[in-house]
């Protein structure tokens, strides 16, 4: 990754130079242009390092006020290297924000007048119904990996650990075959510019998998590059689409027990049924439920692959779900139901068989009432 700002004059550098060369307050147009250029990039930095939209907006406002003030007062020694200055300001501010909330608020108050130019572009959004439809077309394993990676923005190591996969396996599965993501990958490939960030690298960065040195290099690149910033925005929007689709009850997937615990910890009202093998359990949903989970205990040690055969009394057809993800150590298969669909169904009975090859390792029955 080369820092273009040291080679050729960048638009940011030129604007910064113009502000630094003018009397304070005499380069308002350059200030507004610099703000619009850098503010969205600083916000992305905040989203990645603070993981909170409000905090990221605060960071953006504080850093941009600081940058413009320092340029006005001539305190930026090399205005043409403004991106490096901004990176330093971002790092300092994140540290400060983590330790001193009160100071941040005071600064914002003090510089309220500059915030009026904060009309930056809105990030793209993915319709969560479309995200859900795309996830539905994936294999059971792919859907679980993407749901669990994006929902909590968890590194491959974590997701792998709870699904009995290797981290490498998770990374192979993970790049979403979602149409928008596929388009992104193509776009990146067409650009073919090694100076830009790879999609996979950006994804690893967003999920917190990159080491300190690469994180720092990517931070700096993103503060100077809108093309890669737009890719990151798409990724962030996709992650949000996954969370919204889940919240809307549109995703059905096998998940790790730890994932259900994390949902509950985030405040989701989880209704769950543990179905002992050979038994029949009555189930239903209440209006306030956010998540519906069925737990199927089974002896899973040593198994490489498990299939699930599902049949409901609503239609006679059996559906075989191949190679479902599971955490062998937990001794159970956990199914997260598509709640929005379940709510529309009349009373019915669900039969589930777990198979290792053709050997039945568990039979379960749920009697769903409305
Ligand atoms: Zn780039």
What does this structure look like?
The chain has 370 residues and is α+β, with helices and mostly antiparallel strands. It folds into 3 domains: 4-117, no CATH class; 128-247, no CATH class; 253-368, Immunoglobulin-like, CATH 2.60.40. 51% of the residues lie in helices and 15% in strands. It is built from 15 helices and 9 strands. The chain has helices spanning 11-21, 28-50, 53-72, 82-99, 101-110, 128-136, 140-152, 156-163, 167-173, 179-191, 199-206, 212-224, 226-247, 257-265, 339-342, and strands at residues 253-255, 270-274, 280-283, 291-297, 307-312, 315-321, 332-336, 348-356, 359-368. Strands 3-9-8-5-6 form a 5-stranded mixed β-sheet, with no helix packed on it. The protein has a 4-stranded mixed β-sheet with strand order 1-7-4-2. β5 and β6 (315-321) form a beta hairpin. The longest helix is centred in the first third of the chain and has 23 residues, at 28-50. The radius of gyration is 25 Å and the shape is elongated. Bound molecules: zinc ion (ZN). The site of zinc ion has 6 residues, from α13.
Task: Provide a concise account of the structure shown.
The chain has 15 helices and nine strands.
Write down the Rg. 25 Å
Q: Specify the number of helices.
A: 15
Instruction: List how many beta strands DSSP finds.
Output: 9
DSSP helix fraction = 40-55%
Report the uncertain regions. 1-6, 113-121, 177-181
Strand order in the largest sheet: 3-9-8-5-6
Bound molecules: zinc ion
**Oligomer designation:** single chain
Major beta-sheet overview:
5 strands, mixed
Structural class: alpha+beta
Proportion of strand residues: 15-25%
Question: End-to-end distance, in Å?
Answer: 58 Å
Order of helices and strands: HHHHHHHHHHHHHEHEEEEEEHEE
The overall average pLDDT, rounded, is: 84
Total separate domains? 3
Q: Which term fits the overall shape?
A: elongated
